[in-house]
Amino acid sequence: MKLRSFFPALxxxxxxxxxQAQTALRLxxxxxxxxxxxxxxxxxxxxxxxxxxxxxxxxxxxxxQIMNGAPFDLFLSADLSxxxxxxxxxxxxxxxxxxxxxxxxxxxxxxxxxxxKDSPLPTPSLDLxxxxxxxxxxxxxxxxxxxxxxxxxxxTSLKLYDALKPRLATAENIAQAAQxxxxxxxxxxxxxxxxxxxxxMASSGSxxxxxxxxxxxxxxxxxxxxxxxxxxxARKLLDFLLSPPIQAELAKAGLTPVH
Amino acid sequence: xxxQAFALTLKLASVTTTILLAIAIPLAALLVLGRGRWLAALExxxxxxxxxxxxxxxxxxxxLLGPRTSVGRGITVVLGHPLAFSFDGLVxxxxxxxxxxxxxxxxxxxxxxxxxxxDAARLLGAGSAKIVLTLLVPLARRSLxxxxxxxxxxxxxxxxxxxxLGGDIPGATRTLSIVLYNxxxxxxxxxxxRTAAILLGLSxxxxxxxxxxxxxxxxxxx
Lengths: 259, 222
What we know:
heterodimer, A: about 260 residues, alpha/beta, D-Maltodextrin-Binding Protein, domain 2, 2 domains, 12 helices, 11 strands, about 40% helix, globular, B: about 220 residues, mainly alpha, MetI-like fold, 11 helices, about 0% strand
C-alpha cells in the first residue's frame, strides 16, 4: 500500500464509532459464573425487558476495579470477603437486607477433583490425590481465588498439602485451572463443579465431588454498587437470582442453592 | 522484594534475547535480501504474535506443547518433562511472543543499507552469510541494539503468556511480572510499589547505559 493511501485509511478508521450501547444493567460476575449465567440473564431479559451486560473476571480483579470507580451496578462475587471489603469501604451495600454489614449469599460453590477421561491414571477420588503419578495438580490461586482457598483447605485437611505443594500448578482463576487440566498439561485439578458441568468439560473428563467437611463452605456473595443509577433494576436482578426457579437452575449448573 | 523472581526474570530475558537474535538475524536478512512473493507472507507470519492477546497466545501454546499433541509428546520424550509449567516452556513462549520485536528493527536496519554495497560485496565473491555478518550487521548496529533491547525488555514485562504457560511455580516460572501482579491483586500495594520502582529504576539505568555506550562507540547515526 502506498503511504499516500495508508495514512488516510488509518485516519479514516479512527473515525469509526461503535454504535452507542443502550443503558443496560452492568453486572460484575465472578469467573465461575461464566458457564452458568448467560442463559439466566437471557431469561431475565425476556421476563423484564432489561438487558444485562456481564463482565466475568476473578472476584479480586472486579473488586479492585469497583474500588477504582468501575461503572458496575451489581457485583456477584465467588466469595464473601471481596464484597465485604467493598461494603466496609462504603462502596457497596445490600439494599436494605437484614444484615447490612454482610453481602447477600446467592449460592454456594462446590469443589471437585477433575481429570481427563483419557488419562492413564485411576478415576478421580481422594486416593488419586495420594497417587505419586500425579505430577501436576492444577489449583486456582489460593491467595485470592475462593476455589483456590478451598482447594488448599481441603488438601490441608487431608494432610496432603505439604507433599503436593511442589507439584501444584497455580492458575490465575478457576477457569484457567480447568484449562490446565483439560489441555492435558496437569494430570488432575481441583476446580469448580460449574466448570466440570460445562458441556465441553463434561464430555472430556470426569469428576469427584470433594467432601464438604474438608473445606469451609464457598459462600458466594452479592452486593449492589452504591453509586449505581439503576438501583431498583439491580435489586430486581438480585431478587430474580434468589427466586426458587432460578436457584433450581443454578443447582443444575453446579452451584448449591441457598434455600 | 522477591530476588529469586528477579534473577529468574533476568535469566529468562537473557536466554530469550540470545535465541531471538540467533533466529532474527538470518530471518531478517532473508526477508531483505531474498526475492519472491512468499517472503511477504513470511514477514506477515513473523509479525503475527503482535495480533493475538498474550493470554490467548499462551493458551494456544499450552495446548500445542501439551501432551495431547504429537509435538507436545515429542518434546516430553526429548526433555523428559512437558514444556508447560517449566522454565524451558517460558523460553519457547517468550521467543515466539517477542519475535516481532527482534525482527522488525533488524528488517528496517538491513533494508536501510545501500543495495549497491551488497551488490559490490556479492561481485567480489562474498557469500550470503559473509554479507550478513560483515556488512549488514555492522552497518545496522543500532538496529541490532534496538532489537536486543526491545526483545529483552518485552520479555521482562511479559505477563499473559507466562501467566498461561507458567503455573506460578517459584524458581521455575514465577517471574517478576507475576510477582508484581500477585502483589497488586492481593491488595499489597506497598510491596507492589517497591517491586515496580526497582524494576523501573533498573530498566532506566540499564537502557541509559546501553544508549550511552552506543553513542560513544558508534555515534548516534552509525
